[in-house]
Amino acid sequence: MATEKIHFVTGKLAESALRQVLVELAPKADFAYTVQVMPITVAALLTPKWIAPRLEIPQGTTRVILPGYSEGEIEPVLGVVDVPVEFGPRDLRKLPEYFGQKSALPDLSAYDIEIIAEINHAPKKSLSEILSAAAGLKQQGADLIDVGCEPDGTWSGVSECVTALVAEGYRVSIDSLNPVEIAAAAAAGAELVLSVNSSNVEAAPDWGIEVVAIPDEIADVNSLQPVLEQLSACSVPFRIDPILEPVGFGFARSLRRYMLAREKWPDTPMMMGVGNLTELTEVDSAGVNMLLIAICQELGIHSVLTTSVINWARTSVREIDIARRLSRHSITNRVPPKHLGGELVSLRDARLLEFGIAQLSELSGRIRDHNYRLFAERGEIHLLGGGLHLHDEDPFEVFDALVDAGSPNLDPSHAFYLGYEMCKAMTALTLGKQYTQDEALDWGHLTVSEKDRHRLKKRSRSSRKPD
């Protein structure tokens, strides 16, 4: 016998689809159910205040679930029933997940890779620009702010810069080979030096902070050995970076050097400068960052240096923050980094939920009002409303057909709305993404919600008359 009896509230348009979902879901989730179809076509136009006086709760009901699109406070419904009431998911096809039919996402809070985010060409920036950049990088997930100096000349303002960053609570590293700049930065509170080789290693004991050792000859990882010996002899803490090279300049060989370095110095902390690849590879950076962080996780490289200068890599810090959590979870638990939230899946969605042409045709025959419902499936945009089912791969053709149909509800406001929504639908079709009317496309960690600025509220206020 089912442990719950749940009363679902919906509109006429969604009734058939809801019942289809519940027939399969109820036995799996162990609940009985009833469905109340309100005298209104679109469930999105229902509000708790409108629902409350029309609600009919069957005896034995243990819970009431309202449509996820219902707007307004839930209190009016709570005032007329004595069982729990809640909003379901906006997309009824996601009800199985709502009832826990998929395992909950794992805890991805743990990570052990440190992000060092560089502010490039710092000497050419004002102090306010540097502080603003640091705030943005920290918000994205940076652990250290790296002050990137210029290769020629000595920056007289390095001490002021580091002092200001430390005063704001930032951990700071200095990216320079110039001993004078490094000494000033260390005295001002920097805690890490990028980088040290035979050209400046003699001064390293004077700085009193950790350094990153790099090879004198990039192609030869063994050229690190003399520098490491000097640092060890003077008790200078260090981590090593064999230097990642860009595609076209020995990328694969440089990966091999990291592996060789880990074999040669199994217990020595290491760093990888991943920006050498993301900045110089004309491709969206998320996938590149994920693979590099996975390599770091497997090799025990627990710090990475990144930049976010070029536009295609401007969210690298955030991407690495996500990737380090995914990689640690994956490797610790020996599972692929898949179905763990999808924050790095931006261009294409993991899966598409479709009604299918048959169900869309059925829905179109049941609509009696002149509000428009949009769907994007199998290469076409579908517009349903007032006895219409228009569909074409070209949104302009759909709109022209709507005009030709003499729709009475095509004022400038609705025309703009349809153009906006069909543009989203076309983007979804082009990239292979899920389109849901009145909702933002899912861009992973880049998604910007439309909930608070969408015209759905305005449209629904003028369309709340039941059939």
What does the model show?
This protein has 467 residues and is an alpha/beta fold. The protein has 17 helices and 15 strands. The strands form three sheets. Strands 10-9-8-7-6-5-12-11 form an eight-stranded parallel beta sheet. Strands 2-1-3-4 form a four-stranded parallel beta sheet, with helices on one face. The longest helix has 20 residues, at 412-431. The radius of gyration is 29 Å and the shape is elongated.
Note the main attributes of this structure.
17 helices, 15 strands, disordered C terminus, eight-stranded parallel β-sheet, single chain, alpha/beta, elongated
Strand pairing plus helix content: what structural class?
alpha/beta
- Fraction of residues in helix: 25-40%
CA-based gyration radius: 29 Å
Hey, roughly how much beta strand do the residues contain?
15-25%
Strand arrangement, largest sheet?
10-9-8-7-6-5-12-11
| Arithmetic mean pLDDT | 90
Number of helices: 17
Main sheet? 8 strands, parallel
Distance between the termini: 37 Å
Shape: elongated
Unreliable residue runs: 456-467
Question: Count the strands?
Answer: 15
